[in-house]
Amino acid sequence: MSRRRPSKWQRPVNDRPLLGGTQRREQKSGGEWNVRRVSGSASAKSYRCPGCDQLIPPATPHVVVWPDNPSLLGAISGAQSLDERRHWHTACWQRQS
Q1: 32 vs 69: CA distance, rounded Å
Q2: Helix intervals (H) in the chain
Q3: Consecutive sets of 10 residues in the chain, 97 residues long: mean pLDDT of each?
Q4: Model-level pTM?
Q5: Within 13 A of 6's CA, how many CA atoms are on the CB side?
Q6: What is the structure's pLDDT at 8?
Q7: Residue 66: beta bridge partners?
Q8: Are 66 and 33 in contact (CB under 8 A)?
Q9: So what's the pLDDT on residue 67?
């Protein structure tokens, strides 16, 4: 039996290290959201912002957002909101009501 620690991708989101950013909980009209600020140096991939549908280039500071309470499907699968995380431009997230 292996005694290795599980991959960081298999651990709950709240147990993962913060890579160059801070995390807080925000209240929006859609409910409670976990918002993690990601610094430019910690961002190595491109992501598509759901607010403006534009790419967030690598090395661009942005926020990662996921619901505090996962959807029913996420809770059943044990994904703990991992599939519900979205990368937003900071300004696009702030414009969300």
Answers
A1: 7
A2: 72-77, 90-95
A3: 63 51 82 90 90 95 86 59 84 90
A4: 0.69
A5: 8
A6: 58
A7: 34
A8: yes
A9: 85
- CA–CA separation, 76 vs 58, rounded Å? 33
Contacts with 78 (C-beta within 8 Å, 6 or more apart), sequence order: none
Q: Are 66 and 13 in contact (CB under 8 A)?
A: yes
| Token output for 62 | 């942005």
Total H helices, total E strands in the chain: 2, 6
For residue 9 the two structure tokens come to 């991708």
Contact 85, 66 (CB under 8 A): yes
Q: Rounded to an integer, what distance in angstroms lies between the CA atom of residue 56 and that of residue 83?
A: 18
